[in-house]
Structures are given as structure tokens and as C-alpha cells.
Design goal:
It is a single chain. This protein is an alpha/beta fold and 143 residues long. 34% of the residues lie in helices and 22% in strands. It contains six helices and five strands, in the order ααβαβαβαβαβ. Strands 3-2-1-4-5 form a five-stranded parallel beta sheet. The longest helix is centred in the first third of the chain and has 11 residues.
Amino acid sequence: MTTVVSFFKKLLRPRGQRSFMSSIKKENCKILDVGCGNKSSYFFKQVKPDCVVYGIDVGDFNQSDESKGLYYQYIIVQPKTFSRSIQNIEEDFDIIISNHNIEHCNDPENTFRAMLDRTSLGGYLFIATPSLRSINFPSRGGG
């Protein structure tokens, strides 16, 4: 059933994160999840079970002990040091994901630069942000 659901999610959102991740054929990849709240580690382990995932965020947003345990490293930092903290990770990543995160950063330009610097040669960077078309959509608290 999970395969069927995944198929339809990719079909309905051909430029979404699931389609992006499924298009990358590299195995045993190293992923950096920037703004890693909402138990996103489950998603990565479902789509790429052999991956090593690092997560970095400014708070412990909607995580469980189990979801945090799926990260090789789970890093919580202060908002003012977020971009520098990404830069200071001593790894380069095959895939970096920033899913509706960069628009919340204190320093989005340097956060973006830090993500580029941490992307390995031939690596992939996925950034999803709100658009002007969605500015009047209903939002949840904090959005």
C-alpha cells in the first residue's frame, strides 16, 4: 500500500520532494535535512533506507525520540548561528533538503551559501519555499 501511495504522491506533485528524492539513483547517500522538524527522518528512511541523514534545526519541532534516533547527527542550534552551524558541519552531502525552511532563517543568504558549500561535487540541493501565489492561503500558527 505504501508503494501505491508514494506513486500517487509523485504523480500529483511531480516537482515535490518525494519525486525529487525518488529521481536520485545514488545509493548509500549522505543527506542534510535543513530545518528537520516534523519527523522528516521517517520520510528519508522510507524513500532511501540506506541513506545516512544529518538534521539541523533551531528547535525540537514535532520530533519523537524515535524520529531523532534515525538521524546520524541531530543538531539543534541558536537561530543567530544557524548558517554558520551548517557551514561548520565537517561533512559534504550528496543531497541537501531545505523544505519550507529558508524563509524562516535570520540570514537566508548565508544559509543558502552554507548549503551550497556543504553540497558535494555532483550533489543535489532541493529548496521549497512559499510563492507569491500562496501568500493569501490559510496558514497554521507560526507560518
